[in-house]
Amino acid sequence: xxxxxxxxxxxxxxxxxxxxxxxxxxxxxxxxxxxxxxxxxxxxxxxxxxxxxxxxxxxxxxxxxxxxxxxxxxxxxxxxxxxxxxxxxxxxxxxxxxxxxxxxxxxxxxxxxxxxxxxxxxxxxxxxxxxxxxxxxxxxxxxxxxxxxxxxxxxxxxxxxxxxxxxxxxxxxxxxxxxxxxxxxxxxxxxxxxxxxxxxxxxxxxxxxxxxxxxxxxxxxxxxxxxxxxxxxx
Amino acid sequence: xxxxxxxxxxxxxxxxxxxxxxxxxxxxxxxxxxxxxxxxxxxxxxxxxxxxxxxxxxxxxxxxxxxxxxxxxxxxxxxxxxxxxxxxxxxxxxxxxxxxxxxxxxxxxxxxxxxxxxxxxxxxxxxxxxxxxxxxxxxxxxxxxxxxxxxxxxxxxxxxxxxxxxxxxxxxxxxxxxxxxxxxxxxxxxxxxxxxxxxxxxxxxxxxxxxxxxxxxxxxxxxxxxxxxxxxxxxxxxxxxxxxxxxxxxxxxxxxxxxxxxxxxxxxxxxxxxxxxxxxxxxxxxxxxxxxxxxxxxxxxxxxxxxxxxxxxxxxxxxxxxxxxxxxxxxxxxxxxxxxxxxxxxxxxxxxxxxxxxxxxxxxxxxxxxxxxxxxxxxxxxxxxxxxxxxxxxxxxxxxxxxxxxxxxxxxxxxxxxxxxxxxxxxxxxxxxxxxxxxxxxxxxxxxxxxxxxxxxxxxxxxxxxxxxxxxxxxxxxxxxxxxxxxxxxxxxxxxxxxxxxxxxxxxxxxxxxxxxxxxxxxxxxxxxxxxxxxxxxxxxxxxxxxxx
Lengths: 234, 549
Hints:
Chain A is α/β, with parallel strands linked by helices. In chain A, 39% of the residues lie in helices and 22% in strands. Chain A starts with 9 loop residues before the first strand and ends with a strand.
């Protein structure tokens, strides 16, 4: 599991009220080469984040003293540190609100260690928008943002302007889940955030063009009730 | 029933639209006006007769007094005596009898006291002038006094009426308890109209309750029910003294507020004569006050109910949130710990140890699913599931559901059949995905491995059909109507199910205004069909057409 230990140890701040969960996360993260700081509530979490300047924050949305969301908003007032929120299934609205308020990604309880580490890596790597000069590659898909070339299995694919900008958005945030409203705002502008229908249609078009089997997409993954994610391979 | 329901005995205008107007009644013709609250009130005609009689008697008595005092006073003094009698009469009787007294006294004065005596002739000019002047003065003075009295009466009636209404309103607003309020109403109206009072409230479905409220002071006889029904339906008074249901024992008036009949007031008057216009207008004013108080009470109850509902909603939301957090956290801990165990022991674990870890994992997943289902059922039952409707891609939905249940259905032959031109369908993606996944899990549990499971979507007359068809043992006929019931498990159901999955499916689908049905297929197996009504989506988005690609 712990194949690639980062050269310099990254610090992860875990803001979680459950002591068992904290112990467990400490074990998982330390075994995988992270340095772990803990905070048991939102207030402490915000203070600790200011003190230790972590490389990533793991934030439980179900905190007792402050809503996890409030912590996220406070953090986003002064730092762009990647924040991964921990939520439970059935609370899709919470996830969407967290993502729209600057969370980088989420994991759903109960999650496996592998899933957590993968999300953490993605969040850290793409915490900042990707540099445009490096072509994106994942599986059969090759996207060069500079020459605006999209290739699937080495073959050039023709995309319409909307499809291309949609794909660009995913490439720039590869591995990160994008909510419907985030995508709609980016592609169609701030006035069209309720037109989920457009998005569904263009996602279907895009899948037809870049997926090996559009019925079982491997690149553009649906996150039910939340949005879409462009899968990245570790 | 009234035998002559159409004969207009007393045509009351509808109380809900206009107050009972006082017709051209002359209050000055009535005796002491406190009768507005104390009954019986003498009838108008008989009272006029009585007053005239009093006038005649007083004038006669004055004449006799004139005879007695004749040796002491002259005819001018006697005229003054008559004048006094007329003015005093004017203060007690109506204008007509005063007029009568003035005329009669002039005639008698002329006959008995003016020369020549015992004739109606007047010999001296100054006597004639005196007679004429007396007649005019008596007439004018009498009429003036009568008018002043009439005005005073009207004023007092108005004051009394205002006081009565004020007292009633204050009593009603002071009482927050509805039963106490009705008791007050019955008491007050009873003493006000010298009657027994009853209040009838609307029951369920707008029908009046048969039994009056226990606060009333008389038992409504069964024979009066049609009258009450008619008041509820038409919003007009009925019963005794009214055009409709005149043979009823009591008089029934509507309590109307905001165009709605909030109740019926029953009054069994002790008087035998129809209520006077004053009584009617007072009763009408009282009814309006009572109806308003009823309405206020109703609104207060409604807002209280809404507050309680909001509070219980907040509680249940808090409870659900903390439940899902509290239960899922330990599950997450167990699952993660088991994952670590598997990692640590990758190389040197015995196969038994690995099997145990796998058991822990599987049990945890099952527990997590169960908790999820119980929470979902609770959310459904407390009405907390509100679909977030967005246009959704049905293909995506079906494929994702199949993918998510792939592990459960690993041993089955799963096939997906989708028409090429499915439109976007407005629904809650997450709920419908859960519904479809539950149907698929259901098939995985209840059909033997190796059999076929077919998932399909189709359009059928304004609805989207999502089907899951299997080739398992089918559903016993007596179980068919109950498969979607909560905790219902078929007689031969294998262990592992909870009896919650299908009831969740029904809950989620019905939250969309759709239906789910189960049938046995010809050739064996069962088919579950979700039927979702299509709501219009923008025409341009209706088809994921191939020509674009």
